[in-house]
Specification:
The chain is α/β, with parallel strands linked by helices. The protein has one domain: TIM Barrel (Alpha-Beta Barrel), CATH 3.20.20.80. The chain is about 40% helix and about 15% strand. The strands form two sheets. The chain has an eight-stranded parallel β-sheet, with helices on both faces. Strand 3, helix 4 and strand 4 form a beta-alpha-beta unit. Helix 4 packs parallel to helix 6. The longest helix is centred in the middle third of the chain and has 21 residues. The relative contact order is 0.16.
Length: about 325
Amino acid sequence: MKKTLIFLAGILFLLTSCNQKFPEPVNPDTSPEARDLLEMFYETQGTRTLSGQHNYARRQSLHRSTDTVIARTGETPVIWGSDFGIPQMRNRMLEAAEKEYRKGHIITLMWHAPCPIDTIPEKVNPVRYMPNEEEWKDIVTQGTKFNDALIADIDGVAEGLKSLRDKQIPVIWRPYHEMNGIWFWWGNQPGEEGFIKLWKIMYDRFTEHHGLNNLIWTWNANAPRDWENDQAYAYELFYPGADYVDVLAADVYKRDFKQSHHDDLLALAGGKLIALGEIGLPPTPEELDEQPMWSWFMMWANWPIKYVEPEDLNALYHHDRVVNFEAFKANR
């Protein structure tokens, strides 16, 4: 009965959306390809969820997790994801992204950015170094040494994204993810002078200076949680606002698919799209039924290989509302 109601709701949505004006991309110069992709998600919002898989940007891993999904389910994810986090692998990663796009896949990219300061202890991961108040202020203040380093890092990633722009390849771009958590240097910095300022620095640099008009700007928080030494705080404390975000996403691990994670993000989105930017263990079919507005999910790399039981992976990929590559391509 529940699936019948969801189907009927989907038909009603499609009928009423024929004359509906969807939210415009936040970048008024967004490319036709990126606009078309965004509109496709709006047209199917609430009626289907596209499958996706992250792949590590390493020589032997660029397709390994996706290939595992195919082998275990007989289905291919629609969305192919990877990371700018390994500079030596960027060219190879970008080549793989182009090949996947030419096959008909949607591309989503992220960036595990290093903290742009020069005083990080040698044995500390520069992605996980937590700057103090003074260091943070310098990072986001124009004209400081640390801000110059930040801009240089941003510009390096922009050059890679330009190579896709120049080939008319749209990208779901989700930088500085899980900013409401306590484990990355850009995290746990609430307010206008915190993460919000960092997001706007990148947005302005990418759009105004580099002309990166092929991006769908995806603000990707973690699902809020009060786990000891692993907290993630309320979405709204870190949200840069509707003028800077096309899609709002949440990362959900340990099968923590609380209804509030979906509903609170949907309320904050105010009519914009929501998605599961990263998942570990998948939602159950019942949880997916109760949370119909996720436009896509992307499972993190190696989870299909090491952690997800084949029956759970199959339940996800063969859910009535989940759309996989073959069906997606046939209807494009």
